[in-house]
Specification:
tRNA pseudouridine synthase; tRNA pseudouridine(38-40) synthase activity; EC 5.4.99.12; 366 residues; Alpha-Beta Plaits; 22% helix; RNA binding; PsdUridine_synth_TruA_C; alpha+beta; 14 strands; 23% strand
Length: 366
């Protein structure tokens, strides 16, 4: 049976007697704890300072469990955090059906789906949640290690329940892999030290249908050694203006980025390009991959890379290569200082998901 998540508003002044408690709630709540069974909210009134949310039963009622010490607010942490709590999530998603990460009013986006799930569970609006990702992935781009944070005015002693509730409300293409308490100074985007992207190329004569949505098919036999030589020219601090598409917003970003490594790894028919950098411009990775594909096809020499970089003109790259398609690209990891990832003192343990066990079960049909 699915259980609801309990959200606590700021605690009311304590009442000393049962009569005072009944008077404070208008006689709508009993001092005696309710049964621990799952009760329909249609049959019991709510305390004004308790708000229930969770999956609906078939009759439309919400399923709720009476609060316990394990579900309450961590007051020690509340005092140090001044009533504000920040939570970090690690998210994986298949981006095939989505219009990228960034929230948009109409088309489905990853951020929109996660905000809807959080809103349903916490009853907070998106402005209160303030969900922020480490970066924007484009339409069709996948992720294994996207990081985001959100805030709430209340805390949890255990994160396993909210973790299960979020994944239960999300479409199957999106999963929260990890959720933890975060320090107030942690920021999913501005606290990053580096990001790792992978780009997968299927380099077989006949495309494997199981890789069709997750790897770019190159019908040309690629020279992986030439691609490695070309990739070395990307490593270091450079002005990557030639590899950035125009962004239609007011945000001005420095074109100077540092690439720590750019590896070309052969795994059978799969050619995997792995790049790690302090940050990336709009479509920079896909544009770098596009140039390496041309080098791998032996249409261009490896030393073309420094010439394109030095030009600092996107039109120079457009003369020799088009942007690589999005479905081969993955955001694999976002790295932070270890100290930044340490949870605050008194915070609940990190949740990596909850497994279920059945001690005795008779299956008549399976």
């Amino acid at each position: 049976m699915l259980l609801a998540t309990v959200r606590f508003a700021p605690p009311p002044p304590r009442v000393a007697t049962a009569a005072a408690a009944a008077a404070a709630t208008g006689g709508n709540i009993s001092v005696k704890p309710p049964s621990p069974l799952c009760l329909s909210l249609k049959s019991i009134p709510l305390h004004p300072n308790l708000m229930w949310s969770g999956p609906q039963l078939r009759d439309g009622a919400h399923c709720a469990v009476p609060p316990s010490e394990e579900d309450g607010v961590d007051m020690a942490w509340a005092e140090t955090a001044e009533g504000a709590y920040k939570w970090r999530m690690v998210i994986a998603y298949d981006g095939t059906k989505f219009k990228g990460w960034q929230y948009q009013p109409s088309p489905p986006t990853i951020q929109c789906c996660i905000e809807n799930a959080l809103t349903c569970i916490t009853k907070l609006d998106r402005k209160e949640l303030c969900l922020i990702g480490s970066g924007r992935t484009d339409t069709g781009v996948h992720a294994w290690g996207q990081v985001a944070h959100f805030t709430t005015p209340f805390s949890y002693h255990c994160l396993d329940s909210i973790h299960s509730a979020i994944n239960g409300l999300l479409p199957h293409e999106i999963r929260v892999r990890e959720i933890s308490a975060a320090k107030p100074e942690f920021h999913a985007r501005t606290s990053t030290k580096s990001k790792i992207y992978h780009y997968k190329i299927y380099n077989g004569a006949v495309m494997d249908p199981f890789h069709n949505l997750y790897a770019y098919h190159s019908v040309y036999k690629l020279n992986s050694q030439a691609m490695r030589e070309a990739a070395k020219h990307f490593v270091g601090i450079h002005d990557f203006t030639s590899f950035a598409n125009a962004v239609h917003n007011d945000r001005v970003r420095s074109p100077i980025k540092k690439i720590m490594r750019f590896d070309v790894i052969e795994m059978g028919a799969i050619l995997q390009l792995e790049v790690e950098g302090t940050g990336f411009l709009y479509r920079q990775v896909r544009n770098m991959v596009a140039l390496l594909l041309q080098v791998g096809r032996e249409a261009l020499p490896p030393d073309i890379v420094p010439h394109i970089i030095a030009a600092r003109d996107r039109r120079e790259l457009a003369k020799v290569a088009l942007s690589a398609p999005p479905h081969g690209l993955y955001l694999m990891a976002v790295n932070y200082d270890k100290e930044m990832l340490n949870p605050p003192e008194g915070a609940p343990p990190i949740s990596f998901g909850r497994t279920h066990q059945i001690s005795k079960c008779k299956l008549l049909f399976y």
